[in-house]
Design goal:
The chain is an alpha/beta fold. It is 26% helix and 18% strand. The strands form two sheets. A six-stranded mixed β-sheet has the order 1-2-3-4-6-9, with helices on one face. It has a three-stranded mixed β-sheet with strand order 5-7-8.
Length: 239
């Protein structure tokens, strides 16, 4: 994640206090058939998948948190606004730019003011760096235990040395989105945000071990699938 200059935000110091987590499932996530996912957005509704209930739109995104993600999301929202009561944002991202993440967040906040917003990271996918900020905009934040998550200090473009001002901005955004103070304090106290490097965790660890309040609901580890038998050609004989 890169930061593009300091921004005074009057952020108060983080207090390392325990936080009681409320992890009650609010909304269900449609069980979608596995399909290839290219870079960029894909929008699915009940028209495209019988697994999706009417009134729900699944917006899938795979790629960097960088231009033109915010611009594309704004265009998608303009097309589906007023037609759905719930939006499920399905993420798979290696992170990106802090400034652009905040542009995406502004759009998501506008969406959340009108519809129920769920964010999800499916089993085997990742949500790294700036992606965490985007993910945390959901009221219901669901992820698999076998997902990858990564945190590091916010760095200037083309550098891996964290900027103190940009990192404070990143922490402020995480805190405002509801990340547990004691988890952020752990990242700070351990020096993980001050020096070049990456802090990795699985979805299971974030939820059960660190109690980070990044994920509010873990997805079930078992994903049932419909039988897919190969067609039998009567003209083919065994040798």
């Amino acid at each position: 994640m890169t930061g593009r200059g300091p921004r005074h935000n009057g952020r108060r110091c983080l207090e390392c206090a325990a936080l009681v987590l409320g992890c009650t499932a609010v909304m269900a996530i449609p069980a979608l058939a596995e399909r290839s996912r290219g870079i960029g957005f894909e929008v699915l509704t009940a028209t495209e998948s019988k697994a999706i209930k009417p009134g729900v739109a699944v917006v899938r995104y795979k790629g960097q948190i960088a231009y033109p993600m915010a611009e594309n999301l704004a265009e998608i929202w303009s097309e589906i606004q007023g037609h759905h009561t719930q939006i499920v944002l399905d993420l798979d991202s290696a992170g990106g730019d802090l400034v652009h993440a905040e542009k995406v967040i502004a759009i998501l906040r506008g969406m959340a003011a009108e519809v129920a917003l769920t964010t999800v990271v499916e089993q085997g996918n990742r949500c790294l760096s700036a992606c965490v900020l985007v993910f945390m905009q959901g009221t219901d934040r669901a992820a698999g235990g076998a997902t990858a998550w990564m945190f590091h200090g916010a760095c200037p473009p083309f550098s891996n040395i964290p900027s103190a001002a940009a990192t404070r901005r990143y922490l402020s955004d995480l805190e405002a989105a509801g990340a547990a103070p004691q988890f952020l304090c752990t990242l700070q106290a351990s020096g993980y945000l001050d020096a070049p490097g990456r802090f990795w965790a699985s979805g299971y660890e974030l939820f059960h071990v660190y109690e980070a309040n990044v994920i509010t609901r873990l997805l079930e580890p078992w994903e049932p699938a419909a039988p897919n038998a190969l067609p039998i050609d009567q003209q083919i004989r065994s040798r």
